[in-house]
Amino acid sequence: MKVKVVPMREYPQEIEETVQKINKCLNISLFDWQIGYIFYNKPLPKEISFARRAGKTLAAALRMCLSKAEPICLREPICLRRRDIVLEGTETHKVLSYFGDEDVANKCRMNIFYETAKEVYFSLKNIDVELREIIFE
Fold it and tell me: Of the four listed, 19, 69, 91, 128, which is most buried by Cβ atoms within 10 Å?
């Protein structure tokens, strides 16, 4: 019985290089759906949408860290304050809700997203990847 090998999609060189740097830095291997979600703002696949421990939080954190001009912030630095996580109307709540999609439904999930984003951001600061300026307080 032959096993069908599905090759990874080809992406522009800039994205391929960024993905390789991220994979090496974080010691991971991003899935195609994560790459589409992060770099092309594609929706999550249906089989991933409601799954837990599938890589959505990591993908959302990477999308925020690598965002160049998301409509919510228009290239200004993002300032995330832990004390503002559940306060609707604050920049922190808006940003986490926008980038975290349904994963920020409650304070616990928002805290997980905040911590994941912070860890990813400071890990990527050490490599040659263009990052959005994010201030964690």
Answer: 19
The b/e string for 124-133 (b: 16+ C-beta within 10 A; e otherwise) is beeeebeebe
Whether 11 and 19 have beta carbons less than 8 Å apart is answered as yes
Three-class SS state of 78: strand
Q: Among residues 19, 10, 9, which one has the least CA distance to residue 39?
A: 19
Residue 132 has pLDDT above 50, yes or no: yes
For 63, half-sphere exposure in the C-beta direction (CA atoms, 13 angstrom radius) is 27
Q: Cα-atom radius of gyration of the chain, to the nearest Å? A: 15
Give the pLDDT confidence of 3-36 residue by residue, as tens digits. 444 445 678 889 999 999 999 999 999 999 999 9
Q: Average pLDDT of 91-95? A: 77
* CB of 120 closer than 8 Å to CB of 21: no
